[in-house]
Amino acid sequence: NNKGYEIAERLSAKFTHIAPVWLQLHWEAAAATFTVAGQHDIDAGWMEKVMRPQSLGSTAVRMVPRILFELDQAGLLQLLSRPLDVADLLVNFCNKYGFDGLVVETWSQWAASGLLQHASFRQQAVQVLRLLAQALHRPTDRSRMELILAVPPFEAAHQGPVLAMPDFEELRAFVDFFSLMTYDASSPSKPGPNAPWKWVKSNAHAVASTAINRQSPRPEQVLLGLNFYGNDYTQPHGGGPIIGHEYLSLLKTHDPVIRWDQKTKEHVFNYVAGDEAHEVYYPTKASVQKRLELAHKYGLGISIWEIGQGLDHFYDLF
């Protein structure tokens, strides 16, 4: 989003990594090859500004665009049978554009589709990621590139565990960081808070408690996900996401009473438009601060979905 581009450039010193949502991996059956789509979105001039150190001795921001594996069944089979081809393609792509690695959001896709329930697929999926990590980690004249894996939370809000600890224990050996998607706990079909406190805490605790086991990920290897967007629900089952300027518009139009929910540690308000009753959950400085304190307590890093969707004063907390 345009606001995100502006925030990344203006406040680059506050971030270690920036992950533009530019890229998609496709399988082109006619040419029997993999391709990377989204190149038209890459903005080299903006990258240069963001990655420029802000002061003498400061560390440059690492540019790690997100890539989705948008593959049909045929493409998925090719991925599993030709993982080295994909690894080489992506590494060469990163070198071409000066990226410092990739955020791969495919584990959550595989989990949502049920593929990871099959042991054979899971083993092959891990191998795909392992080979990609090894390729990214190869010594070059540039700094070592990184693999960041976006993963669903350990404990889903409305079901059993989505990501098992053995997954972490195997993946942590070669994944540089895990971006834990501790948001989207609710949806229009099950309205409620975006990231209820108890749920976020249980996920943070699950990560930190495994630090006792040397084979488990270090707490700082895990980035606790914060949502900078909210949801405007309509009764009984409707509505959808809202971002900062939409939230401010609702406040101006309806002048609602904003309530603090002590249990979920989120702010919420209600309003009526026409004949529809609405309930809005949107992060505030107080709710973000509570989750930052949680990350600090357990020694976790932070990932944000996504900058530009929040209010400007959120960044004062970092």
Structure, explained:
With about 325 residues, the chain is of the alpha/beta class. It has a single domain, classed as Glycosidases (TIM Barrel), CATH 3.20.20.80. It is about 35% helix and about 20% strand. It has ten helices and 15 strands. The strands form three sheets. The protein has an eight-stranded mixed β-sheet. It has a five-stranded antiparallel β-sheet with strand order 11-10-14-13-12, covered by helices on one side. α4 packs parallel to α6 and α8 runs parallel beside α10. The chain is globular and about 55 Å long.
Using the alpha-carbon principal axes, give the shape. globular
How large, in whole angstroms, is the Cα Rg? 20 Å
Instruction: Let me know the average pLDDT.
Output: 92
Q: If helices are DSSP runs of H or I spanning 4 or more residues, what is the number of helices?
A: 10
Largest sheet: 8 strands, mixed
Number of domains: 1
Structural class: alpha/beta
Tell me what the CATH architecture is.
Alpha-Beta Barrel
User: What would the CATH topology be?
Assistant: TIM Barrel
Percentage beta strand: 15-25%
- The count of strands amounts to 15
Distance between the termini: 21 Å
Jot down its keywords.
single chain, 318 residues, alpha/beta, TIM Barrel, five-stranded antiparallel sheet, 10 helices, 35% helix, globular
